[in-house]
Amino acid sequence: MRLINGRYELRELVGRGGMAEVWDAWDRQLRRRVAVKVLDSGSLLPLEQDERIQQERFEREAHIAAQMNCANIVTVHDAGVFVENRRRYPFLVMEFIPGENLRQHLRHPENWSLPSLLRILTDALSGLVYAHSKQVVHRDIKPENIMIGPDGTAKLADFGIAIEMREHIQRLTQAQRALGTQHYSAPEYLHHGQITHLSDVYSFAVVCAEILPRAYGPAGIPDDLKVVLDRSLSPDPAQRHRSAAEFQHYFCEALERVSNATRTTRPGTVPDQLRQSQTSVLTPGALREPGLETADPLLYSSTWNFFLIPALASRQRLLAGLARDDYRYVAALFGVAATAGIALGGLVFLLLAWLLVQVGKFV
Fold first, then answer.
1. Residues annotated catalytic, as ranges
2. Which fold has domain 100-168+179-263?
3. What is the DSSP letter of 172?
4. Which contacts qualify for 62-68: CB closer than 8 Å, 24 or more apart?
5. Domain 2-95 belongs to what topology?
6. What is the reported pLDDT for 44?
7. N or C terminus of the chain with fewer C-beta within 10 Å?
8. Residues of the chain with CATH 3.30.200.20
9. How far apart are CA 196 and CA 306, in angstroms?
10. C-alpha span between 336 and 284 (Å, rounded)
């Protein structure tokens, strides 16, 4: 077990990149689980100047990340340098996210649900908007740098090659060295080494264009979202959204329009459950013609048919032509009720007469 500065126990290697490795670690002082990022000794160049440049870049990461206080950005707790085998290794202590990154998350099709992926993207976008509000460019946005916690919250991670926009002229990396993943890097960065907040917007749009087809399936990305993404994927930075905040506005607005369009019932159609519910005897609606197989079985006795079926049929024909707010509608209801009452009264009278006849036979 490796121990850093007598405080951080490096227990398990959980990730390795081109310049650093990440460990599942334990903070002895505060007694909590943390993630420790250590500059990979194998990536340190033998030239003292290059090693110093990498160390300066790593310390800059700590300085930048420590300024971030956002629920959608991985929190940095500590930073420093430790010595091992007579070499100096910068390290960064961060909150441990007991989950997986977006790339790992997408390996399982059961994670491709639309609500889940949209939440991940909007969470990460909120983190990016916050970073830009602090004048910080991430410069390496990709699925591997979007962490997903147990509760589904997504956090933007690894500001290891981030730069402050106020100091964008200062270059700590060697000329022509592109540290960002090329597939997600903006054209102006790949071709000219230029980086701005609009480069992050481009990279995030690439991530969205890669992820969303999994969520929307064969139907593809809705047109409203395509318009937003296409603008931010423009090779010309001047044609993109002017900021991550502006991209967020149009992205969420498009999602809302798509969601509303999905929920809206097509004009002229009525859901089956609604049609089936409009069968009350005292209200107009989609009551079937009396005598159909869906009617109450009691209506099939000849006596009930004789008295009630004509009354119900007459009621339906009458009410179908009247609006609910028509005074004639109310009058019709009373009329139908009276007709039904007379019919039932006649039935009771006949039954009593029949009983009297039967009793008379035994007298």
1. 140
2. Transferase(Phosphotransferase); domain 1 (1.10.510)
3. -
4. 62/90, 62/92, 64/136, 64/159, 64/162, 64/164, 65/92, 65/94, 65/159, 65/162, 67/134, 67/136, 68/130, 68/131, 68/134, 68/136, 68/159
5. Phosphorylase Kinase; domain 1 (3.30.200)
6. 44
7. C
8. 2-95
9. 85
10. 12
